[in-house]
């Protein structure tokens, strides 16, 4: 029996075009005399191929991926202009960690995080400290590590145990925070969301915070739904806890998406360093920072908020330069792309790009809310992301998984998935509107959704629900 077919651990995406054979057959049109026409899938071929042949094989396979413009599941950017692509190719060999060989890239990195520190209203950007990362997941890890080390240092100075650190988060938190708690031996204390409290809002926070709490995570754009968690309300709840107990618990803001939306569209919303308890903020530049993957940023309010013993010194033009990262060698090209966008768009350009996505999201959510089958969870008025559910009792013939599958026939990737624990029986669908998803594409999507609903409503018997796959995309 074929090894791939018999090995249950050898799993791929259910939508991948992998077949069950062990070889990749070359199209005879591309075969050169003397070249192999079959290539093993899971081992390095014995001989060489011409670059044209290898290119054609990889090119043809990658064409089977989905259409990025119709992918409304992912937050990650999929388009940059020709000048950015040219810059990307010119700088693809730059290693961000090698600050001796690439000192200008290192200087540009510093310029970028200082720009971001000012964007997030740091009280003194010159006294802040920040860094680029592979993505917002690494940025979150670094923010969490700093919270844990600050707590450890304070506990040791007071002669107290550091055995049982915990971190307070929403049950709808992005999976990278679960990884952080798992990898660094921190107890994750999840505050459940509910129909009454759709996000972590400070409600009942005193039940989760104690002397071993290293911090609270607030999310600016919950992955499940796109809703903001009210940072100022969470901080006010922590103020009340401190008044009663003396515990001074700080906040890390996971601004994966909202960190590059709120500064441009919700300028009066206090979520950033204007809130005194916020000591660090992270964001994903390859989401609404508009850069190709992977790039993230994390900034601390002051140099003192990042414990010195987490910072390493690396050689830099005969001197030293501090670095704080989980990865060592990593691409420098995306940092230059971020700087390019800051120069090209400026504040007003970013505002217009984000506003265009916001407007499309509000249009779409309004159209979906008008369809009798659906009920909105939120409308996309925070980040341009929203979710909806099937109205209770609407039908027993189909569910949102079936709708997701039906839309996939037209090329649309719109995930359906259960909400977190405590409301996991509730299934929602979510749309992420990114730069490049235009109003006319949105109108086409509305037509296709209505047609799909009409088709499903005409069914005379229920569709089987066995084997449905959750298509949740972070």
Please explain how this structure is put together.
The structure is a single chain. With 474 residues, the chain is an alpha/beta fold. Helices cover 33% and strands 15% of the residues. It contains eleven helices and 15 strands. The chain has helices at 3-6, 51-62, 82-90, 103-119, 136-157, 175-183, 231-245, 262-265, 333-369, 400-408, 439-457; strands at 23-25, 38-40, 129-133, 166-170, 187-191, 213-219, 251-254, 278-284, 296-300, 312-316, 319-323, 374-376, 385-390, 416-418, 427-432. The strands form four sheets. A seven-stranded mixed β-sheet has the order 3-9-8-7-6-4-5, with helices on both faces. A four-stranded antiparallel β-sheet has the order 12-13-15-14. Helix 4 packs parallel to helix 9, helix 9 (333-369) packs across helix 11 and helix 10 (400-408) packs across helix 11 (439-457). The radius of gyration is 24 Å and the shape is globular. It starts with a helix and ends in a 17-residue tail after the last helix. Residues 1-9 have low confidence and may be disordered.
SSE class: alpha/beta
Residue ranges: pLDDT <50 for 5 or more in a row? 1-9
Largest sheet: 7 strands, mixed
Radius of gyration: 24 Å
Q: Tally of extended strands?
A: 15
Report the mean per-residue pLDDT as an integer. Answer: 91
List descriptors.
disordered N terminus, 15 strands, globular, seven-stranded mixed beta sheet, alpha/beta, 11 helices, 474 residues
Summarize the structure.
This protein is an alpha/beta fold.
Write the layout of secondary structure elements.
Layout: H1 3-6, E1 23-25, E2 38-40, H2 51-62, H3 82-90, H4 103-119, E3 129-133, H5 136-157, E4 166-170, H6 175-183, E5 187-191, E6 213-219, H7 231-245, E7 251-254, H8 262-265, E8 278-284, E9 296-300, E10 312-316, E11 319-323, H9 333-369, E12 374-376, E13 385-390, H10 400-408, E14 416-418, E15 427-432, H11 439-457
Parallel strand pairs: 4-5, 4-6, 6-7, 7-8
Antiparallel strand pairs: 1-2, 3-9, 8-9, 10-11, 12-13, 13-15, 14-15
Helix pairs in contact: 3-9, 4-9, 9-11, 10-11
């Amino acid at each position: 029996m074929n090894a791939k077919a018999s090995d249950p651990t050898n799993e791929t995406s259910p939508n991948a075009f992998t077949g069950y054979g062990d070889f990749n057959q070359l199209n005879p049109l591309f075969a050169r005399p003397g070249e192999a026409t079959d290539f093993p899938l899971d081992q390095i071929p014995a001989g060489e191929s011409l670059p044209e042949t290898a290119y054609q094989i990889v090119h043809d396979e990658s064409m089977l991926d989905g259409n990025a413009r119709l992918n409304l599941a992912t937050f990650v950017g999929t388009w940059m202009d020709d000048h950015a692509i040219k810059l990307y190719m010119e700088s693809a060999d730059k290693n961000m960690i090698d600050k001796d060989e690439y000192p200008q890239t290192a200087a540009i990195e510093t310029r970028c995080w200082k720009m971001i520190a000012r964007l997030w209203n740091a009280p003194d950007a010159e006294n802040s400290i920040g860094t680029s990362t592979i993505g917002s997941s690494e940025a979150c890890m670094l923010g969490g590590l700093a919270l844990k080390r600050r707590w450890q240092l304070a506990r040791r100075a007071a002669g107290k145990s550091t055995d049982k650190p915990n971190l307070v988060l929403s049950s709808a938190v992005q999976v990278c925070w679960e990884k952080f708690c798992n990898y660094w031996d921190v107890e994750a204390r999840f505050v459940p969301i509910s129909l009454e409290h759709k996000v972590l809002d400070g409600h009942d926070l005193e039940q989760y915070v104690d002397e071993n709490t290293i911090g609270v995570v607030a999310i600016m754009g919950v992955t499940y739904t796109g809703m903001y968690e009210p940072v100022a309300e969470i901080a006010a709840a922590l103020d009340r806890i401190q008044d009663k107990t003396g515990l001074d618990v700080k906040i890390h803001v996971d601004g994966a998406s909202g960190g590059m939306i709120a500064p441009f569209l919700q300028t009066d919303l206090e979520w950033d360093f204007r809130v005194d308890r916020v000591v660090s903020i992270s964001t994903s530049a390859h989401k609404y920072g508009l850069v190709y993957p992977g790039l993230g940023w994390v900034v601390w309010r002051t140099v003192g908020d990042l414990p010195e013993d987490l910072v390493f010194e690396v050689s830099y033009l005969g001197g030293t330069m501090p670095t704080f990262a989980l990865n060592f060698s990593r691409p420098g090209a995306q940092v230059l792309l971020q700087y390019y966008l800051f120069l090209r768009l400026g504040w007003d350009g970013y505002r217009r790009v984000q506003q265009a996505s916001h407007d499309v999201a509000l249009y779409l959510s309004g159209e979906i809310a008008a369809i009798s089958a659906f009920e909105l969870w939120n409308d996309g008025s925070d980040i341009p992301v929203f979710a909806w559910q099937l109205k209770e009792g609407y039908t027993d013939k189909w569910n949102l998984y079936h709708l997701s599958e039906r839309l996939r026939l037209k090329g649309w990737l719109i995930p359906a998935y259960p909400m977190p624990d405590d409301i996991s029986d509730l299934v929602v669908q979510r749309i992420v509107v990114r730069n490049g998803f235009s109003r006319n594409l949105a109108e086409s999507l509305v037509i296709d959704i209505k047609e799909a609903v009409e088709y499903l409503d005409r069914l005379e018997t229920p569709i089987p629900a066995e084997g449905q796959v959750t298509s949740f995309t972070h």
